[in-house]
């Protein structure tokens, strides 16, 4: 089926979110809408709509102008199986003892490594991005340093790869949460495919306010692979749910953003454990709760 994309940028989160909501009311309506912060220090946000019928260019321009955004760039996509193409092009990713792979590469996982099957889908976290790999490397280091957590939380879990990695390596209960229902469904499917259902639970939740998240506290390892701004907001709530001596692994940070985020978390009772760089411009922070 032929699809169209409509992409633009807005100067702030408020403008972008308002435009994203307005875009959903357009006729023909988009099959999906995405609102993402552009992590280049510009402060801009990207808004994208995906359509199964050609969108109304004039209506798009009016929406953009009304919300302080640039005119939409509309493109027609070839009729192809994008998921199948991604599966063909993604190679296994190694991070310490972990190998993240698609089903087509299962035979390439060495016997002494932990294979994590993640199929291409509409959720973040195939392991190929530097932020996800940084979290896996941080988990590897924590295990080598003797970490023996009792409970693990993965906030903004995407495909669920981090919660699954902790459960597979340590055989401890893990909770994977995400605000996006597609991500939660994807994580659930991946957990079943990796035979980790007894160990990893999923929950659709916005941040840490969900009752299921609170019931599971305190957590000994908390993963938060999201963006700089929400990471700053999460410092207090995560501190309240992390056990003394527990570790928060933060990613989704450009190298230049890491010191500022670390400073916010220090103010909420965390101290630096270690920092991983050299991840394609991204930094992963491991911070210990005092």
User: Helix and strand succession?
Assistant: EHEEHEHEEEHEHEHEHEHEHEE
Give the CA-based shape: globular
Radius of gyration: 20 Å
Strand proportion: 25-35%
The parts where pLDDT drops under 50 for at least 5 residues are none
Mean pLDDT: 87
Q: What is the end-to-end distance?
A: 54 Å
By DSSP, the count of extended strands is: 14
What percentage of residues falls in helices of 4 or more residues? 25-40%
Molecular structure report:
It is a single chain. With 290 residues, this protein is an alpha/beta fold. It contains 9 helices and 14 strands. A 7-stranded mixed β-sheet has the order 10-9-8-11-12-14-13, sandwiched between helices. A 4-stranded antiparallel β-sheet has the order 2-3-1-4, covered by helices on one side. The protein has a 3-stranded mixed β-sheet with strand order 5-6-7. Helix 4 (130-144) runs parallel beside helix 5 (161-170). The longest helix is centred in the middle third of the chain and has 15 residues, at 130-144. The N and C termini lie far apart (54 Å).
